[in-house]
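2024-03-11 09:14:02 INFO worker-7 job=invfold-0412 stage=load source=structure_tokens
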């Protein structure tokens, strides 16, 4: 990070254009500044950095015009490799909050200082410059570097712009005998990986290769070495234990005695252009000398396209060609690995299927899960086995999972119209191809997701500003519809509910084509509104599409003279024209405020289109903001902000990284942040190799509960770091709570200490004081309590607590929750300890994050009503040994 006021400029950073504007110290200037920066950067063709620049400018201008109370000067400077934005004010205060002081970056709830925190997170460089009368905060955003290499390069570049290697390019040359052992190891291999020739000759290459292995299949480095030729990426474990990503080219040869062996050329992965095979011309252009090759041979070894959709489409096309199929499809898994989303197809009605979702676990038996390869010789004998292929005419299909480090990331399938086309041999070939492309697909997916999230951040910043600018109900509804169309949907309708005894009323309709608004409104007015269900998230609503189809069918029959009745009205005729518009997926999101549904927003797509999950999540965020703007006063909004800030201050700012242990925490306060929660959690280092963790529940909510929460969390850290054991820590905390007198609250608490061991296990010591017992999940699916109950805190003076010791083996998961999870109710039913155990039983093989997400999902789906109690979920999973 550059020092404030200092920026090193290179020849490529010469300013080529500038734009400046001054904004008055009023609230509307923030939106004007954002529009100025957005328009300027888009005009320069710098769309890659627009979203980040808008977010940073918004925070910095807010600091100037709102907090400093002066005019803001915004200056945009363009260079060949990026953009620099300067925001100046007339308040030359030299205090700059710095991380770690307790006053700046470490306190996210403070109004001032957040702009600098965002600068540190998003900008390439940033700083602050002072004069006697002014202060300038600047940030620089570099343009993303484009790949330069064999087939992804742009035009010819001057030498000064070519990538710089730290030293000469080294090519490791190894030769593998017929038995899989290394027979040749050159000097470059010694330099790259740290092993001398004497250390590795005679050993199997599999001892060094970190192959992206897929459990359940035999495909791996051994099979790759048996191929006549192969290109791709994997890893080599160096002498220092680190995995070095390499790009490899294998060639199968034989010596004069006919003995086969494999020659391997390896370079660092970022230098893959040295070995990469040039793009081959189509077979029709290569003449009679062209040879039949694996369709994945060229594609897998090449850099991924800039966009994920292009990569996925090329993948399914080559998969279909490789197995000579009639169609192919590729689905990507959601974050919790419970559903798959259709992202690319060929030979199928892609417009109808795109972004449709299917469950990962479709049923029982060998063919019931997307986690394992499957071959269906005749789909007519197992109807519905592959829902994606229903009514497509496909008879046989082979599907294989895409996995990265053992985690399901997607599914690849090839289908044919004839029965019995595929066997286990084709499944193995397709699995081998899937293993080679899985990492590239996941990398591209994460890149796309990051871009979407940054764009979503910019969108929500502007949406929140617009919604907070008015207290008029109708204007807020109109603003919400205008923000969703066409950014999120093709059309939008907003329903409002005056009170609990009133029916939903159609308040606003908007379509991207203004000429169709009246027809759409007429159609929606003739059908019953969606039910006001408070369940969070989007749900599909089929009534508009069905009504449009019935109207279109009726009009068609009357035009052909097949029906009777009165003449077709203009309204029905307009409905027929609207049938294609509402023929796609239509979803309903509730507008919920103060645990009451105050309206609904309906989003629609044109014929046969589906919403992607990220768009629905963004729409859900937007709907929550609109609901609060509709139902809350400015004073109530300030109260929400205060309570949320207090809640964040009672929770740890971040979780430490524990060697060999994955940790995930999910926290949900009841009332969507309107109340200060009484649940809390903590995870902190005690000393080298020892970590303390806690999860607790204070009786009640509000300031009194918050006071006990803060006392408990800070006291636990202090006492643990003073060397006290678990029982001593809780006994002293109990005394401190009782000393609070009338302000005290009783507290249930699970406190433990964790020691990762060298053998990969982890030793834990527990004290469970009146709290729901922690559950242990073994790799075989067995679930059992990991502790015994003891008295809660804040009730009795003299407690006799004791410590329990448990050893978690590799692959074990420890789940700790508050009673907001186990006491989730639907009428007289309660989830309970047994229900939680049943959910945890289904989590074998999942990461800690996926376990926590699946538990939260089960709790939310258990009851339709919003949660009335706080929830905290802490999941810890001991890493399993890495498998080559």
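2024-03-11 09:14:09 INFO worker-7 stage=emit residues=884
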């Amino acid at each position: 990070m550059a020092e404030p006021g200092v920026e090193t400029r290179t020849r490529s950073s010469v300013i080529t254009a500038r734009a400046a504007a001054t904004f008055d110290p009023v609230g509307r200037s923030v939106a004007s500044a954002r529009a100025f920066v957005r328009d300027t950067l888009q005009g320069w063709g710098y769309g890659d950095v627009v979203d980040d620049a808008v977010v940073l400018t918004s925070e910095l201008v807010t600091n100037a015009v709102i907090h400093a109370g002066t005019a803001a000067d915004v200056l945009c400077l363009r260079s060949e490799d990026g953009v620099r934005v300067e925001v100046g004010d007339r308040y030359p205060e030299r205090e700059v909050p710095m991380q770690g002081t307790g006053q700046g970056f470490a306190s996210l709830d403070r109004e001032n200082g957040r702009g600098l925190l965002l600068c540190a997170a998003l900008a390439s460089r940033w700083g602050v410059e002072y004069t006697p009368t002014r202060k300038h905060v600047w940030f620089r955003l570099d343009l993303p570097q484009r790949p330069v290499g064999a087939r992804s390069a742009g035009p010819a570049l001057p030498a000064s712009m070519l990538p710089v290697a730290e030293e000469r390019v080294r090519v490791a040359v190894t030769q593998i005998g017929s038995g899989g052992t290394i027979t040749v190891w050159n000097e470059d291999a010694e330099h790259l990986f740290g092993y001398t020739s004497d250390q590795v000759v005679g050993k199997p290459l599999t001892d060094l290769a970190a192959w992206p292995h897929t459990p359940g299949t035999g495909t791996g480095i051994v099979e790759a070495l048996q191929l006549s030729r192969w290109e791709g990426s994997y890893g080599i474990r160096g002498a220092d234990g680190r995995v070095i990503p390499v790009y490899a080219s294998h060639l199968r040869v034989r010596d004069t005695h006919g003995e086969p062996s494999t020659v391997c050329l390896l370079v660092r992965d970022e230098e893959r252009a040295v070995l990469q095979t040039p793009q081959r011309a189509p077979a029709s252009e290569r003449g009679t000398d062209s040879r039949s090759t694996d369709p994945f041979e060229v594609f897998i070894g090449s850099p991924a396209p800039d966009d994920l959709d292009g990569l996925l489409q090329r993948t399914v096309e080559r998969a279909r060609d490789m197995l000579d199929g009639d169609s192919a499809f590729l689905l990507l898994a959601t974050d919790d690995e419970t559903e798959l989303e259709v992202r690319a197809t060929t030979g199928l009605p892609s417009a109808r299927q795109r972004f449709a979702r299917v469950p990962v676990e479709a049923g029982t038996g060998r063919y019931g899960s997307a986690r394992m390869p499957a071959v269906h010789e005749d789909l007519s004998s197992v109807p519905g086995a592959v829902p994606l292929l229903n009514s497509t005419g496909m008879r046989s299909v082979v599907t294989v999972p895409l996995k990265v480090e053992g985690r399901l990331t997607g599914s690849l399938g090839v289908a044919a119209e004839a029965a019995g086309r595929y066997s286990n041999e084709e499944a193995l070939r397709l699995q081998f191809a899937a293993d080679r492309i899985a990492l590239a697909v996941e990398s591209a997916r994460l890149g796309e997701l990051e871009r979407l999230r940054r764009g979503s951040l910019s969108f929500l910043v502007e949406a929140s500003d617009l919604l907070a600018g008015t207290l008029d109900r109708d204007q807020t509804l109109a603003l919400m519809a205008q923000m969703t169309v066409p950014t999120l949907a093709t059309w939008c309708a907003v329903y409002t509910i005056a009170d609990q005894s009133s029916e939903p009323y159609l308040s606003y309709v908007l379509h991207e084509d203004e000429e169709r608004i009246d027809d759409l409104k007429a159609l929606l007015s003739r059908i019953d509104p969606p039910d006001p269900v408070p369940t969070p998230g989007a749900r599909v609503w089929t009534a508009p599409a069905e009504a449009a189809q019935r109207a279109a069918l009726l009009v068609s029959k009357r035009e052909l003279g097949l029906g009777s009745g009165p003449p077709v009205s203009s309204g029905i005729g307009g409905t027929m024209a609207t049938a294609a518009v509402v023929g796609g997926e239509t979803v309903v999101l509730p507008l919920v405020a103060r645990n009451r549904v105050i309206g609904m927003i309906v989003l629609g797509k044109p014929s046969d289109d589906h919403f992607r999950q990220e768009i629905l999540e963004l729409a859900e965020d937007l709907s929550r903001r609109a609901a609060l703007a509709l139902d809350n006063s400015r004073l109530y909004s300030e109260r929400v902000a205060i309570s949320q800030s207090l809640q964040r201050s009672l929770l740890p700012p971040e979780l430490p990284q524990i060697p060999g242990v994955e940790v995930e925490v999910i926290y949900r306060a009841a009332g969507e942040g309107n109340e200060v929660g009484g649940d809390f959690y903590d995870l902190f280092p005690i000393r080298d190799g020892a970590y303390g963790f806690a999860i607790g529940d204070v009786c009640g909510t509000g300031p009194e509960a918050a006071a006990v929460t803060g006392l408990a969390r800070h006291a636990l850290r202090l006492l643990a770091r003073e060397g006290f054991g678990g029982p001593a820590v809780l006994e002293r905390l109990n005394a401190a709570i009782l000393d609070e007198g009338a302000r005290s609250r009783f507290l249930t608490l699970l406190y433990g200490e964790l020691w990762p061991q060298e053998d990969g296990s982890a030793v834990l010591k527990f004290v469970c004081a009146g709290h729901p017992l922690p559950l242990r999940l073994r790799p075989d699916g067995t679930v059992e309590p990991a502790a015994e109950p003891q008295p809660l805190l804040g009730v009795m003076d003299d407690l006799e607590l004791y410590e329990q010791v448990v050893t978690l083996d590799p692959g074990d998961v420890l789940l700790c929750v508050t009673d907001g999870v186990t006491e989730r109710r639907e009428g007289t039913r309660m989830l309970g300890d047994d229900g939680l155990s049943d959910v945890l039983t289904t989590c074998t093989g999942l990461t800690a994050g996926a376990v926590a997400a699946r538990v939260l999902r089960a709790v939310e789906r258990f009851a339709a009503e919003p949660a009335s109690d706080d929830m905290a979920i802490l999941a810890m999973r001991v890493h399993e040994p890495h498998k080559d």
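2024-03-11 09:14:09 INFO worker-7 stage=report msg="The first strand starts at residue 17 and ends at 23."
2024-03-11 09:14:10 INFO worker-7 job finished
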